[in-house]
Protein 1
Amino acid sequence: MHTSFELTNFDHSLNRFKSENSDGIWSRFRHNKWVDKSIIYLKKLYDRSIESGSQWRLQALQFVPFFFASFLTGLIAFLYSRIISFTERKSMEIYEFNHALIFLITPLTFLLSWWLVVRFAPFARGSGIPQVIASIELTKSKKEDKTSLFLSVRIIIVKILSSAIKMLGGGILGREGPTIQISSSIFNVIYKRLPNWWMPIAQRNILIAGAASGLSAAFNTPLGGIIFAIEELSKFHIKYYKSSLLIAVIIAGLTAQTFGGSYLYLGYPPAKYTSKWVYVGLVLVAVVVGYFGSKMCEYMYLFMGFVAKQKTKFKQVGIIVLCGLFMATLIYFVGVNSMGSGKELMETTLFTDQKKVDWYLPFVRMSGLVATFSCGGAGGIFAPSLSIGATFGSLVAEIMGMTAGNANLLILVGMVGFLTSVTRAPFTSAIIVFEMTDRHSIIFFLFMGALIANIVSTRFNKKSFYDLLKDDYIKSVEDKVVPAVESKETNKS
């Protein structure tokens, strides 16, 4: 089923952007005297390197775009994380101030988030990871000119604004997927603006490096970024892009750490297990999250298809308002555990004795994520998936009478398993949770949970949620003419 909005529906809104404005901004930057001097210096250095045949100089120059793009990725990822954290705190403050206000704020923010995307950047919707995968596939099919539909400066701006607004309304979403599309956009824009005399760089390589650096900066998980690039994005041998990938991950991660400090996403939860029953619990958690994660994605995809089939804006607006009211109802009756990314929920279950969660909380967060994600607007599902998995792990631990480190082990396995069932990237999921908690002693348990969850989820749905959306995005652009405003961005300076 084809669920994405057709590109023809967006041509009018896309062309509302005047290409002269973006060209004017670039022209002013490009003709700045310091920029001019830098380019002239690089050109002279490049010419001298060619004349001398110095391979190390040429290789160093080849990495300059990766250094620059990685630095910007780390900086913007840090700023974006602060924006999302701020709006998430404000949403909870609004709820605590007056519970009833959520019935006004949530529908309005959902509607504004959707409007920004539809009017200004249609392919900024959702997580952003399927768009990045689609862009990489387009580079293989010699349709590089269409990558700017998915990756551009406009995408960056709209992605940040749309997701922040939706988070302000209490929507269940994360910033990690959007950060990946933002970072890939940064790398793609820099690639498009390279001078004509610059040595050839494969666009596919620069997009993969951009995505990996984004994940690394978002979660502070450099290994997770590398594994994600290999497992989810790349279909060719790592030897062709290993150096650029490492540079991008290192520079982006170090930049984010420089501004935000060195940290673990979830700290150091105790995970020392003492019960032999944890093996039974591990299998049970992995099976449960594998099933429910797969089913959640199935229903989310179907609901997105239903929304996309609505022919009039009036009907679409009605559905979005209803989604906002549904989300507000969940927040009103369940409380703050039903809103936001779920990071505080994960920290509570892992670092306190309050490991018990209400039996309905996983289903509340799943239904809230479906309502938040499917109605349009920007927002990721990485962090929400981790929090849903944590609640399932907590429930199973409670049923089995497990506490302390035994319970934490099942909670962490639930996080890995649910993320795996959504992304179908078991290695990435296990490594991300391993890096964000620094729990070396349970790495084999995390891999085991990821493997079982992947088998179960694949049993119910062969294709991953990301692959389904990626196919829809490619179908929506492959036979279309790129609008003039977009095609301008593909021209190199």
Protein 2
Amino acid sequence: MTASTRRSAAAWAALLALVVSGLVLAPPSSGSVDTLRVAAADRASSAETHDKRRSGKKRKKKSRLSVRLTPAVVTVYGNGATEPTGVLAQVSPAVSRRPVTIQRKDDAGVWRTVEKARTNRNGQVFFGAVDVTSLGTQYFRGKVKASRGYRKVGWRTTTLYTRSNDGGCEPTTPLVDQQATGEAVCLAARLDRWANAGLMGIGQQVNISSFEQWDAPLRGINPAIIGFDLQELDQAASVEHPYVDENIEGLLQHAHNGAILVAVWHATDPFSGGTSHSPRHRLEPLLQEGNEAYERFWADWDRKLDLIKRFQEGAGEPDATDQRSQCWCTAIVLRPLHEANGGFFWWGKAKPSTYKKVYARLQQAAAAKDVNNIVWASAGNRNTSTTTNPGKYVPPRVDLGGLDTYDPEGPNDDPRDYLNLEGYDAIASKVPRMALTESGPHGSKDGSWNPAVITRTVRKQRLRPLWSMLWYDDSGYAEAGPKQITSVDGGMSWYRSCPNALCSVRR
């Protein structure tokens, strides 16, 4: 082999090595070199296709899991009363039908599965069968399996703390009644824990003047708050065959099972003897002895205090009361003479200083009668063209403020669901606690109103009302119609979205 031949063979060998290694060289004009280049291109194309198949394999997306108790601190009562709580597992993004496991650590330190379920459309699994009848710390944890294109999330833990009602309740702000019962103090502490946890209770008003139907708005639900009217309760005691014992017993049973009771007082007009909706009057005569209105009003209030004291003593039906080994002593939130900034009631739009003096006299009369199971509240109506600033009517010594706000649903009103909170800040700036003491639609004929707008609005405005109370269905006036949770279109969906009837209002 000549030197030139050897050099040519070496060149071809080098070219072949370069082509095989994937390098593209400008080929000589030889047809053999073209053939080698095509083969190398085919091999590179095949490798590229293989890489695409590998990179095209779907990767599971990340998800998050939070596990918390709603609420995380509860009071244990010696009489067996409960404050419900439960474990909420929240998967994000919210995807339905993801398998979640919830476990509780037993006394021996062993984790035991207490719930296996799939997430709802909100990405939630809720375990509500938490035993809160005895003192002690409890530990829970949850995890979610890989599914629906998402990766698994390992154990996340949460802790339940209990407090005794015997000296273990410490409200953030003490009650204005320095002689308040232990039940009242624990009620305030419970509300403060809701506020700290960003929880808003779902409330439902009932018509307690009814006999066997008073609890109709509660059927199918267990609201965190139950509202009633002292005037209606007095009516149940004033009929020919009174049934007030049965109705008080029913309210006590709900409170024993964990509901908070909130009373309003639509006081009879002491000037004319008419209803609370009678024309407005000056309130000064209610502070001056020797006139008929004075005598009527304070005698009426004395009867209402007798009713409130029955809750303090846990006295419902005599037979049921006698059979209890311990008192079902119950505190209530009371908002007397509400919406004073509006012209809806006979006490409305009075001189603010006079109204506050009347309110203080209500408190003094309760103290004189040793009625100390009251968390005192003051509620105003939202700002409208017919109301004045509700902040002007907030008494100096109250435990809680409230705003009553309804969404007009008449034929000429905006059909969109809306929660008007004008006036909320004016009240909230003067009280340690705040609630939406009445809310919902006004004048709806078909119940097409979704209370989810309540939660959505307070979250957006970064507010933390302790509860939102819907009224019961009513009739006989222009704004009457479906109002209760089970009657408005979005009511049950809203209720189910809030475990233990406690909605998270954190953003």
